[in-house]
Amino acid sequence: QELRPKSLDIKQEELGDMVEKEMASTSEAIEDAVRRIEEMMSQARNESSGVKLEVNERILNSCTDLMKAIRLLVTTSTNLQKEIVESGRGAATTQEFYAKNSRWTEGLISASKAVGWGATQLVEAADRVVLHTGKYEELIVCSHEIAASTAQLVAASKVKAEKSSRNLARLQECSRNVNEMAANVVASTKSGQEQIEEKDTMDFSGMSLIKLKKEEMETQVKVLELEKRLEGERVRLGELRKQHYGLAGGCEDQDGEARPAPAPRRGILKKPPIAQKP
């Protein structure tokens, strides 16, 4: 007990309650997301028409299917957690089981938070897209984040579950369904973006030769600027991921919570340099 990190020094009751509260909070966030999507659908039908309405409906329908898949995932995960606790706690109470397995419990809480947060971010991104104040790329990134969070939740649950557990099999099936629905959101978003861009294609037929040449040069400048910016953002993304993996590998995060260190990787043995003749 003395060797346990101070950030894990949480009362048994608090840790047990945190799991239940976080799962309930995630379920509530998903229910709220479904309601918001329905409201956006109604608003889109009133304020848009033609191609834009078709695109908005297709994107929102795919988001609704994804939310339903996530809701089933969370319900199945909750059932599996109850099964794990009942089969592993023995004579101990539920709170004592969570406290004894505090590392696993923290991973479960973190995964549940990630799923709920991803669902909320997806709805906000969809809202901005429908209102034409956001970017289609935001929806794509949110979909990828949800798929990653789902994998995290399944992995956290799988650690303590029996291999023959029916709830585990259901959870894995729900995870595959979430991934499929997330892919549908990405596909509908990309196709919708292409439709909108084709509709909004500029008409250059009325431009003079000088005006066309000027537009061409300005576009070339923008292309070079975007390529340079893209390269810089890729470098920044790489550094962010390094920092993320570093924090997840044992360093304390911003909230002071410790994270388990990953298993050390075997380094590739390098061939010693050959001595040079004088």
Automatic annotation (TrEMBL):
Ranges in coiled-coil conformation: 207-243
Signal peptide range in chain numbering: none
Keywords from the named record: Coiled coil, Cytoplasm
GO CC entries: clathrin-coated vesicle; cortical actin cytoskeleton
Locations listed in the record: Cytoplasm
GO terms (BP aspect): actin filament organization; clathrin coat assembly; endocytosis
Pfam families: I_LWEQ (PF01608)
SMART domains in the cross-refs: ILWEQ
InterPro entries tied to this protein: I/LWEQ_dom_sf (IPR035964), ILWEQ_dom (IPR002558), Sla2_fam (IPR030224)
Molecular function per GO: actin filament binding; clathrin adaptor activity; clathrin light chain binding; phosphatidylinositol-3,4-bisphosphate binding; phosphatidylinositol-3,5-bisphosphate binding
Domain of life of the source: Eukaryota
Residue ranges, annotated region (Disordered): 247-278
I/LWEQ domain: residues covered: 7-248
Name by which UniProt lists this protein: HIP1R protein
